[in-house]
């Protein structure tokens, strides 16, 4: 886990600002759009045992707890968990929050009905291991809903770099600046991301192939959360690339 401490340190610095962002999201009507996606892809009317991997300041965890589900949120960053506790108290919901590495889960096999995660996998040193762990702790028939993006692919992929220069879709050129109240240097994460595996892999193609190889029963992709743009490959063929996406896999 060479980069784990560096990643933890960065997000510890960003936690206070992200907490403000999460509170804004939970007080905004746009949260209903997230609920509709969950209802479409994985959330049922019965009470579910949910794992929010990389819960951060607790947006998904609080949102799903408000719907009556039994939610466990994990994060490796202590400051994020502290703010998640504050968010849970503010919105009067009960969460089981634990410090844990998303790539090495401390749960029994088949413990959860639903696993949700947002903007986490691109941070990981061993994303394939993470998927294996998530599948392991998921009950038969359960679902993984993973929202993520190609946030730093422009550092390695010339086609994506061209798109990066045309549209603003990466974290340090989006709304993250608004809530960077502690003036954390974004270049720290950029240099960490440069060495992380997901920064050089086109997704969600990789996710689909990886999950299929791991034996899931179904995989679906939703590209409506990100921006799509046309680019030309090395053979001068037009291809479409995306900034962000959702993967839903059923075990």
Automatic annotation (TrEMBL):
This is Methyltransferase type 11. It comes from Alkaliphilus metalliredigens (strain QYMF). The keyword Methyltransferase applies. CDD domains: AdoMet_MTases. Gene3D superfamilies: Vaccinia Virus protein VP39 (3.40.50.150). One of its GO terms (molecular function) is S-adenosylmethionine-dependent methyltransferase activity. It comes from the Bacteria. Keywords: Methyltransferase, Transferase. Pfam families: Methyltransf_11 (PF08241). Residues 51-145 form the Methyltransferase type domain. One of its GO terms (biological process) is methylation. The lineage of its organism: Bacteria, Bacillati, Bacillota, Clostridia, Peptostreptococcales. The keyword Transferase applies.
């Amino acid at each position: 886990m060479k980069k784990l401490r560096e990643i933890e340190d960065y997000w510890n610095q960003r936690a206070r600002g992200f907490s403000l962002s999460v509170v804004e999201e939970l007080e905004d009507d746009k949260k209903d759009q997230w609920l509709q996606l969950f209802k479409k892809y994985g959330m049922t009317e019965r009470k579910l045992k949910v794992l929010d991997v990389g819960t951060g300041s607790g947006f998904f965890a609080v949102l799903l707890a408000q719907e009556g589900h039994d939610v466990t949120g994990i994060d490796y960053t202590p400051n994020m968990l502290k703010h998640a506790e504050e968010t849970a108290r503010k919105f009067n919901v009960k969460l089981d929050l634990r410090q844990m590495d998303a790539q090495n889960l401390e749960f029994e096999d088949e413990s959860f009905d639903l696993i949700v995660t947002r903007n986490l996998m691109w941070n990981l040193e061993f994303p394939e291991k993470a998927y294996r762990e998530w599948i392991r702790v998921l009950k038969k028939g359960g679902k993984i809903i993973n929202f993520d993006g190609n946030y730093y692919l422009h550092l390695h992929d010339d086609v994506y770099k061209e798109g990066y220069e045309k549209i603003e879709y990466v974290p340090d050129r989006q709304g993250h600046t608004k809530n960077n109240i502690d003036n954390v240097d974004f270049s720290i994460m950029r240099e960490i991301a440069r060495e992380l595996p997901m920064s050089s892999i086109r997704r969600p193609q990789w996710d689909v192939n990886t999950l299929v190889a791991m034996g899931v029963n179904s995989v679906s992709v939703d590209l409506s959360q990100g921006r799509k743009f046309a680019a030309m490959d090395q053979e001068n063929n037009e291809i479409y690339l995306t900034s962000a996406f959702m993967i839903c896999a059923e075990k």
